[in-house]
């Protein structure tokens, strides 16, 4: 190998090592251990240490690194998910607690006043069993309904984030993963000067196949997002049609005259006469 070729490969190793060093600095803010692994890979590439390059490159998961760089862990969303997971059993717990207290109060009341045994249990519960500290049936029902309503809201927020907001982020993750895989594969190709031609060809074929796979997955995510947006537009149009149909069934009240159907206008003229 000529001196010029060796200098060119050394310069290329230096550029690749610099890119990995920059990547290590970005990762260091979120995962110090992974940043250390990337920095050691950069040093191994700069020193042209083939064994260390292969070892460090094999220990790096490009998908995990891409998720770490793209997804920003929000404390607020984390608390929302924890609250949803904790509150999912709260209506059952509150209901059984209320039943436990109510049955004890009912037993004490019937023991003291046997003449009330003919009155319905729910009616006595609603009246508080003539005791202090017993949740009335209506109060317990309101508490359960409120907890279920909170769970519905939290679930809608989480599903919105997963199905709408995170779709674009997952596409960015796939593209970032493709970039990282290409960088690591390029680093492996530079790790030694005696890399034979068949191995290089096989490595390039793997890179092309991986790039195609990630591109197809990214396009699939984009198509899902587009289909979701189309469905939302169709639902809005259907809601508008239902609103207009309801207004027409009510005799066209609240509908501008120019938007009314001929049948409604004819009926209105007949009433005017």
What is the strand content? Answer: under 5%
Report the average pLDDT across residues. 77
The unreliable regions are 193-197, 252-273
Order of helices and strands: HHHHHHHHHH
Q: Largest sheet, described in full?
A: none
Instruction: Determine the fraction of residues in helical runs and give it as a percent range.
Output: over 70%
Structural class: mainly alpha
Number of helices: 10
Q: What is the terminal-to-terminal distance?
A: 104 Å
Main attributes?
273 residues; mainly alpha; disordered C terminus
In short:
This protein has helices at 3-28, 32-46, 50-59, 62-70, 75-87, 90-112, 121-126, 137-189, 197-249, 262-272.
Question: What does it look like?
Answer:
By secondary structure, the protein is an all-alpha fold. Among the domains are: 76-158; 196-273. It contains ten helices and no strands. The protein has helices spanning 3-28, 32-46, 50-59, 62-70, 75-87, 90-112, 121-126, 137-189, 197-249, 262-272. Helix 1 runs antiparallel to helix 2 (32-46), helix 4 (62-70) crosses helix 8 (137-189) and helix 6 (90-112) packs antiparallel against helix 8 (137-189). The longest helix is centred in the middle third of the chain and has 53 residues, at 137-189. It is elongated, with a radius of gyration of 34 Å. Residues 193-197 and 252-273 have low confidence and may be disordered.
Secondary-structure map with pairings?
Blueprint lengths: L2 H26 L3 H15 L3 H10 L2 H9 L4 H13 L2 H23 L8 H6 L10 H53 L7 H53 L12 H11 L1
Helix pairs in contact: 1-2, 2-3, 4-8, 5-8, 6-8, 8-9
């Amino acid at each position: 190998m000529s001196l010029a070729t060796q200098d060119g490969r050394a310069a290329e190793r230096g550029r690749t090592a610099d890119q990995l060093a920059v990547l290590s600095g970005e990762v260091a803010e979120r995962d110090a251990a992974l940043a250390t692994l990337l920095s050691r890979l950069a040093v191994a590439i700069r020193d042209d240490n083939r064994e260390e390059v292969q070892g460090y490159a094999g220990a790096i998961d490009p998908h995990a690194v891409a998720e770490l760089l793209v997804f920003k862990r929000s404390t607020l969303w984390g608390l929302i998910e924890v609250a949803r997971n904790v509150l999912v059993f709260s209506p059952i717990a509150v209901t059984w607690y209320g039943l436990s207290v109510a049955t004890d109060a009912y037993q004490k009341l019937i023991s003291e006043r046997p003449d009330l045994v003919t009155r319905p249990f729910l009616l006595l519960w609603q009246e508080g069993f003539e005791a202090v500290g017993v949740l009335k049936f209506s109060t317990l029902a309101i508490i359960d309904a409120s907890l279920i309503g909170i769970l519905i809201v939290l679930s809608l927020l989480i599903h919105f984030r997963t199905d709408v907001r995170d779709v674009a982020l997952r596409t960015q993750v796939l593209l970032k993963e493709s970039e990282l895989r290409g960088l690591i594969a390029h680093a492996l190709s530079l790790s030694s000067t005696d890399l034979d031609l068949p191995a290089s060809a096989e490595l390039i074929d793997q890179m092309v196949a991986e790039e195609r796979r990630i591109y197809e997955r990214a396009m699939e995510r984009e198509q899902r997002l587009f289909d979701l947006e189309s469905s939302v537009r169709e639902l809005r149009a259907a809601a508008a049609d239902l609103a207009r149909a309801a207004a027409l069934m009510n005799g066209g009240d609240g509908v501008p005259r120019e938007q009314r159907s001929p049948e409604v206008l004819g009926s209105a003229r007949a009433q005017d006469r």
